[in-house]
Design a protein that fits this description.
Layout (H helix, E strand, L loop, with lengths): L1 H18 L38 E7 L8 H14 L3 E7 L7 H14 L4 E5 L4 H10 L5 E4 L9 E6 L1 H15 L13 E6 L4 H17 L4 E6 L6 H15 L3 E5 L5 H10 L3 E4 L4 H4 L2 H5 L1 E7 L1 H13 L8 E4 L6 E3 L4 H5 L2 H15 L15 H8 L3
Parallel strand pairs: 1-2, 1-3, 3-4, 4-5, 5-11, 6-7, 6-8, 8-9, 9-10
Antiparallel strand pairs: 10-12
């Protein structure tokens, strides 16, 4: 029996490699905040009861390649699903699969189990660790619908891929940083107008965060310089800490934005150790995930709002717009990204700084400001701007 199962699994893997061949992500035009009533889509995080009351109630399963309680993507997804259930738009089940190396075989096994059951209208999973597993299972079950957040599966027509406009997020962080670095009455802020960006790999995705950041800085105060460095790693906190200390001590950087996965936390450690700088988090509210000491020097974080994006997908689905086999990128207008505006942001940032951030957010949402992206930009405009703003 085990031999038969093994043969079948191998056959599925081979089939998946052929059926889900790599392809360029299809371009998707997301309805804008200025859409007509007939094309209506929420301009902010859409309310869960936005759809017509007679819409189908979907049965959904959310697979967590980790555990709830992460105060990040998984908890955000759970909040979005709960809001949909509370509005009687879905019924759902969450399966926590664990996040260790030993748990990873369970991820594929669980995907196969829920797909084979045939009981779910939609299977949801996310993060960069899931695409290979999802590609295999989505190919084996072409009639099953899947939603993947913060990652992309190529060539599978039954998977809707959701990503986030990190350039929109970056613009808000840039506005905030440029405004804050001149507020010398705030602790740790010096007279020099220099902020820092600690990125992971010098790549289009990381530079998309950076491009928005640089544009926000320049628009707020063109005298502010940005010290940009890359760790070339997403796990090496030591190199990020070393870079952070150099930026703080050599170039008088007083605000560091870490966009380098786990490595970025090293920049927070540098800010803490120096007692001369602040840190800004990314993707989730890092004040909620850090130790109390690191949280205390974290001014705010740029957010990927996974829960809002799940609600948005259902809003679209209910009005007949679907994204199977495509990648959709959600920004501020769709509630897909944002910035933390409570805790240290509210306590430490003067009201004038907060107002600048909120004004920039409103301008992006209504289309007054269109933040450029480095994704697909062959002019290297982000690199040119980066080099021009180096201290």
């Amino acid at each position: 029996m085990k031999r038969i199962v093994t043969i079948l699994m191998v056959a599925l893997i081979v089939f998946g490699a052929v059926a889900c061949k790599p392809a360029a992500a299809p371009a998707v035009e997301v309805p804008t905040a200025k859409a007509t009533a007939a094309e209506a889509t929420a301009t902010e995080a859409p309310p869960a009861d936005a759809a017509a009351t007679e819409s189908k109630v979907y049965n959904v399963v959310s697979l967590v390649n980790g555990n709830l309680g992460d105060k990040s993507f998984f908890d955000s997804a759970e909040a979005g699903l709960k809001s949909l259930q509370d509005a009687d738009r879905i019924t759902y089940k969450t399966i926590e699969m664990g996040g260790t190396d030993e748990d990873q075989p369970k991820w594929l096994e669980t995907l196969y189990e829920v797909a084979a059951s045939g009981e779910y209208d939609l299977i949801i999973c996310g993060t960069y660790q899931m695409p290979d597993y999802l590609k295999e299972v989505a190919t084996a079950y072409p009639d099953q619908k899947f939603l993947l957040y913060d990652a992309y599966v190529e060539g599978c027509e039954n998977v809707a891929n959701v990503s986030y406009k990190q350039n929109d997020m970056g613009y808000l962080i840039g506005v905030f940083s440029a405004a804050m670095t001149t507020e010398t009455s705030v602790a740790n802020i010096n007279a020099d107008k220099v902020v820092g960006f600690v990125g992971g790999v010098d790549s289009p995705v990381i530079n998309d965060f950076l491009y928005g950041f640089l544009e926000g800085v320049k628009a707020t105060n063109p005298e502010v310089k940005v010290d940009t460095r890359y760790t070339n790693s997403y796990t090496d906190t030591a190199i990020a800490k070393e870079m952070g200390l150099s930026m703080i001590n050599d170039n008088k950087v007083d605000i560091l934005w870490g966009v380098a996965g786990l490595s970025g936390n090293g920049a927070a450690e540098a800010a803490l150790e120096s007692s001369k700088a602040w840190f800004i988090g990314v993707d989730s509210d890092q004040e909620m995930t850090f130790s109390p000491e690191l949280a205390a020097i974290t001014l705010t974080s740029g957010l990927k709002n996974v829960g809002n994006s799940i609600v948005w997908i259902f809003d679209e689905w209910d009005v007949g717009r679907t994204y199977w086999g495509k990648q959709v990128t959600l920004g501020l207008a769709e509630g897909g990204v944002g910035i933390v505006t409570d805790k240290n942001f509210a306590a430490m940032a003067p009201q004038t700084v907060q107002d600048k951030v909120l004004a920039a957010e409103a301008a992006i949402k209504d289309g007054t400001i269109v933040v450029p992206t480095s994704i697909g930009d062959e002019t290297n405009a982000a690199v040119a701007l980066r080099d021009s703003l180096q201290p």
